[in-house]
Amino acid sequence: MDRFRQAATQVRIQYRVLKHTYWHYEPDKDFYRLVNIFLSLSGVCYTPANIWERIAWGCYQAISVCHYFLTLIHFVEAMVEWKHLVPIIWNFVEFFMMCTAICKSNIIQHHMKEILAAQKFVNRRQAASGDSEEDSKARKVLFKIIQTLPGTLIWVIGTVVVLAAITIGPDDPLFGQSQFFHRHVSGWRARIVHIILNSALFPIWVGKTYCSTILISCLLMGLKTELTIMSQRFSVLCDNFERTSLENFQESLMVCLRQQNQILDQLIQLQSLVRYDFLVVYYGGLITIGSLIFIPTTDGLTIGSFILTLGITVFFIESFLWCWLVESFGNINDTIEEKIMDVIVMIPHDATRHSEYIRLRTQLMIMKIGTRFSAKFNCGGVFDITVEAVGKLLNITYSLVTFLLNFT
């Protein structure tokens, strides 16, 4: 009993250490530490420090390649046999999700320079509203949210790995292995290898599937927080315009303008990343969600159906989160534009200070134009990213499910 108590004590101590390391907010703590760990676990981005880490990283990548080709073989076998529609659809969806996951990983790796620049910018905490206590509260909330997103997904992946190891065997129609696998491995060895493959399958490929959403959402949330803090400073400045001298107002306005330009520069650099990644997320979701809904409706309720339902929910949340974040930038910018127009109307004109009057109006108009066109994100140039896109996704998904049900 003493050994069990000591073990329980050690577990509690380690839990508190991890909680303090990754959950407790400090003014100089890296917002994106857990996000970067999640990217490493997903096999997307990691820089090995020594030879052993290089070997481990190479083995990790080799396992993901093995998963990819086993899934391809399974899909070809299902097409050749054509016994039932559900295995064909599932194997196609599984292979298709792996292809989209590879696309997302490549997009992230291609834009890693912009991603690291945005992370460094948010970690510098340059924006200031004039109320340091409120700024600290806003950044503390941001820190909690950024830790929650990858932390929750890591917990879900761990739960699914345990459930899959206990309940899903190598002969499972959805998450089982191919005939090619069974021809080379059988009996208890097949069970052990199956558990090993599935234990690596979920962290790697689920991580690759959702890594871009976690990363980009956290980056946009960080920039949104900085923009919100800056807008609060600008709102206070505009509200006190009539009680502030023109020289002091211009000086404070230039500070706000510099802060805004820095934030907008980061948003502009991320536009390409958001544009192409959302293109993969949205059109990949159109195919994936409808197919994942179809499978449980025809194949009955199993642990595999539970995992698929969880995946469907996450896909919808993924699309909605992207659209909501992008629209929230527009709401902040609308508030800034309204304040700018109020100040432009209130600026008194003095013939002796005409040049200062023109300079101030010009600065405000530059700020207004930059605000209006800064947060324009689109889906690969096809359409603008808005919450309405999620409604269209639901309609098209419903049409796809209806077609598949009629087809059967």
Please characterize this protein's 3D structure.
- The longest helix is centred in the last third of the chain and has 54 residues, at 246-299.
- The mean pLDDT is 75.
- The chain is elongated.
- It is an all-alpha fold and 408 residues long.
- It has helices at 2-22, 33-41, 51-81, 85-110, 112-124, 132-167, 179-184, 187-239, 246-299, 303-346, 354-372, 388-407.
- The relative contact order is 0.10.
- The chain starts with a helix and ends with a helix.
- It contains twelve helices and no strands.
- The protein is 81% helix and 0% strand.
Outline the secondary-structure elements.
Layout: H1 2-22, H2 33-41, H3 51-81, H4 85-110, H5 112-124, H6 132-167, H7 179-184, H8 187-239, H9 246-299, H10 303-346, H11 354-372, H12 388-407
The major beta sheet can be summarized as: none
Total strand count, please? 0
DSSP summary: helix tally? 12
Helix and strand sequence: HHHHHHHHHHHH
Shape: elongated
Low-confidence blocks of residues: none
Radius of gyration: 26 Å
Portion in beta strands = under 5%
Span of the ends, CA to CA = 59 Å
Structural class: mainly alpha
Describe the structure in brief.
This protein is an all-alpha fold. The chain is 81% helix and 0% strand.
Features:
Odorant receptor; 408 residues; 0% strand; elongated; membrane; 81% helix
